[in-house]
Amino acid sequence: MENLSIPTFRILYKHYVNWVSAHPERTTDLEASIKWISYFLAGRINNSTLLSELIYSMSNFMMLFNDQIILSTAKTNSVPVNDKEKKKLFSSENIKRFITTVDYVEVFVEISAKKLWGTKGRWIIIVLLQTVKCMARLYLLHVHKLHILESPPIQPLDRKSVGLNFDDALDGVITLPSGRTIRKMDHAPPLNQRTWKAPPRVDRLGGGIPGRTLSDKHIVAETMYIMKPIVHLGSMCIFGEKSWKPWLISITIEYISLQRLKSLKNLSPQQRLVLSKRSLHLAMYIVRSPFFENYSEKHIRLFLHWFVNSVPLVGPLMRPFLEYMKQWQETYFYLWSV
Predict the structure, then answer these.
(1) What is the Cα–Cα distance from 30 to 278, expressed in whole angstroms?
(2) Which pTM value belongs to this model?
(3) What is the mean pLDDT of residues 199-205?
(4) What Cα–Cα distance (Å) separates residue 282 from each residue in 123, 202, 253, 258, 335?
């Protein structure tokens, strides 16, 4: 029976890979539908938080897995894959996949730990997860020299761009310091086959454009940003969860790191985008404890009540959010997560 099941599984897996590769848009719709199921389950059944997080994590895993299938297909057709690099246990790609996986599953693991072992068990899991992520990010920074990474490091794939024809795109393409790509004259396709679009960049296939090498002081700034969750957790242990000191320490570290990194010139487009996102993340401190409980919660509730009562058909969607706002704030708006 086992001998029969293995070939069957392989056949089904091969059919699935072929379907995902041939229908990336339908795959995206399927992933989005699963995520919406997790939103609608929240607050409607017993243990809904745990179940909705499980479904949401599964949808993220599915998206990551499908992205790798589409990416592998594109690389097989166009870019030679470095098998030696791929087989290394501590290669940059494997570490980025590991950090991304932890990012996708950490909320589910924390909620499960709280239900199984209580608040103390939850905090132990939080410290373990953030320590492992911190060590992995520091390894990428100091060993692989990967600077100013996204969070999570592997972002959802732009599947439309992967669908382009890469047969001659990467051979004979020059990437300027600004990130713009141009094609050499002798690699231009015949006149009747030209699309007049810019050639795709290497990073669309997962290779990435190397940014400017950071100086020592900028590496220190990026290290500060990576260490921020550990510093925050340590300050919470010293000063208490309700103290303002951990909140102030965290926002100070993030602001100093951001200003140091923004002083760099000739950053790659991806690095500038990451720093812009980090700037926007500073605004999230208004919904993080203890600022949320002392100042912003009452104003947000007043605005949402007015919005629900003033705009037709919004009530059924927003009332569950109002009921569970405090619980979701404690679950999702972390200071200890990069």
Answers:
(1) 30
(2) 0.80
(3) 48
(4) 24, 31, 11, 10, 11
